[in-house]
Structure formats: structure tokens, C-alpha cells
Amino acid sequence: MRRILEAWAHIVDPRTLPIAVTILLFCALFGFGSVMYTGFFSWQVLLDLLVDNAFLLIVAIGMTFVIVSGGIDLSVGSVVALTTIVEAVLSEHLHWPVWVILPTVLLMGTVFGAVQGALIHFFRLQAFIVTLAGMFFARGLCFLITTQSITITDPTFQKISAFRLDIGVGSVTANVLIAFVTLLAAIYVAHFTRFGRNVYAIGGNARSALLMGLPVAHTRIGVYALSGFCSALGGAVFTFYVLSGYGLQGQGMELDAIAATVIGGTLLTGGVGYVIGSLFGVGILGTIQTLITFDGTLSSWWTRIVIGALLCAFCLLQRLIERHAKSVGRPGGTGAVVTAGRERGHADGPAASDSHVIGRAPEQA
């Protein structure tokens, strides 16, 4: 009985309640589809959620780190599109091998994200504005390179795209394997490395992190570099999925990634969240789309309507959790997150202006 009570106390903990709700919602949606539609309850349908959304999962992983750190990245969808265009041009026009193309686009995405992080930190610019500019910049580069859709006919790309790995009675593509390797690596980085702990500390209270001597500058730039890397990797996976490059691809993907991250239990105020939650957030979005497909009578726009309603519901849940944590004064709970959320309105102002000065001495030491 005591173990049951301890497990229940852990579930209702403000730090774990959002992800618990996310997992329960995913199970409820999948269970609803299994009851309502013949053939929905199958191993392959579950695997297809990953096959069709592997690229979104990778992008959402990068977004999770950004939001946990207290920031936002609106450029991810455009970086995905830019990646597909660059891959298509390098493959079809310049005939580069895929093993050279992939490191090139990953480096491109990482540098793109790092530059945004540097602008945000050292010039005290709002993350929303910087990444919005990055979104326009990357999307414009796509159409500067070409305004046409480029189909990829390279045999190596096609082999990777056609690869299937049997898992029981179902199968998955190479994209799913890449996404899961990325997920496992991200879980390790977030919860078992100093960088991950610094990300949570900065998201919880950036000013306290500065006073503790944490490398705020390196961490913040690293977070956006990681987001850029995940966006480029998601773009590479998306290229394997569609075998083409086009400047209009990835439109709205930044909003899907944010929605999946928030529905996955990451607090928008920063400091609280789990990478594994983004997996279930993406799963919920995919399940909603699959339910509408199985129904056959509903417009695809119902997907957006339901996602919007869920996003509002989870934002309200987060606000209630923050108020509860503040009222009970939980040490180590989300009380620090509330404080950080208030300070973040001017964290990019005077406090952040000293961040690279205050934090530099410990780094050099």
C-alpha cells in the first residue's frame, strides 16, 4: 500500500504530472481508435506513427532543449526546408555522395543555430525575434537557390529510403532508427551530463545560474546549436521520406514541434520537461491524424482544431501546476520555474547583459 501511495505521490508531483497526463492521453486516444475502428489496434499502425513522424520527433527533441532552457526557436521548419534543398542540389546537380552531403548539412544547421544563440545571448536580443528572422532568412535562401522542386534520383538515397527493418509482425524505416538513436542520445545528454544539468538550471532561473558560476553563454549557444543540428538532421530524414527538396517543405513544422513539446509535458516557462515526453507528444499528434484518416468523413483541418484545443488545455494545466507549486512552496519543484518565468521578461535585458561577463571568470578558471 505504501508503494502505491509513493507511486501516486510521484505522479502528482508538479515536475512529472504533465508527462503523466501526456502518456495517459496517448493511451486513451489509441484505445479510442482501437475500439471505434477496425484494424486500428495493430502493431503496424503503432509503428507507422513513428514512420510518418520520425522527422518531427527529431525536430521536437531539439525544441525540447530550447524550451527547457527558457527560449524558443521558430526557425526549425525553414532549416528543414533549406536542408532538403541543399541535399537535393548537392546530390542531383553536383553529384556529391550522400556520406559527404549529410555531414555538410548537419554542420550547416549547427552553425546556423549557434549564430542565433550568440545573437540572443551576447546582443541581448529576444529569442522570438532572432529565430523569427532566422526563419525568414533560411526560407529565403531556399528560393534563392531554386524555386523548383528537385526530385532526388541518387541510388543511395533511394536505398536508404526503401530500407525496412522487420520488428515482429511490423516494420520500420531507417528514419525511425535514426530518430530513436537521436532520442536515446538526447535523453542521455539531458539527464546524465553537465550540459543537460546546466540547461535545466538556466531554464529554472538564469540569474541564479549566473551567480553559481555556470557557463551560461556556452550553454545557451550550445542549446541553439543543438536545435539547429536536430533541425538539419530532421531535414535529412525528411529528405529520405519524400526524396525531394523544395522551399515550401516544412511550413508550420516549427509550430508542430512546439505543440508536440508542450503537449509532451515541457513547461513553456522553462526548467521543467522530459525529452521522452516529446516522443509521446509527437505520438499524440500522429494518433489524431490517424484517427481522422480512419474515420474518412472528417476534414484534415480537424487535426489542427484538436491540436489547438489540446495545446490550450496543456497550457492551462501548466499554469495550474505553477500556481499549485507556488502555493505549497515545493523545494525543487516548479516554484523556481515561476520565478524564472517572471525574470525572463527582462532576462535578456540588464541581467543577461552581464551574463557573459559574470559567467566568464568561472569558465576561464
From TrEMBL:
The organism sits in which domain of life? Bacteria
Q: Which UniProt keywords apply?
A: Cell membrane, Hydrolase, Membrane, Transmembrane, Transmembrane helix
Q: Name one Pfam family in it.
A: BPD_transp_2
- Provide the topology term for how it sits in the membrane: Multi-pass membrane protein
Main localization of the protein described in the UniProt heading: membrane
InterPro entries given for it?
Answer: ABC_transp_permease (IPR001851)
- Region (Disordered) residue ranges read 339-365
* Membrane-crossing residue ranges in chain numbering: 21-43, 55-86, 98-119, 125-146, 167-190, 221-243, 255-281, 301-321
GO cellular-component terms in the record?
plasma membrane
> Is Hydrolase there in the keyword field?
yes
* Localization per Swiss-Prot or TrEMBL: Cell membrane
The protein's Enzyme Commission number: 3.6.3.17
A single Gene Ontology MF term assigned here is:
hydrolase activity
Name assigned to this protein? Monosaccharide-transporting ATPase
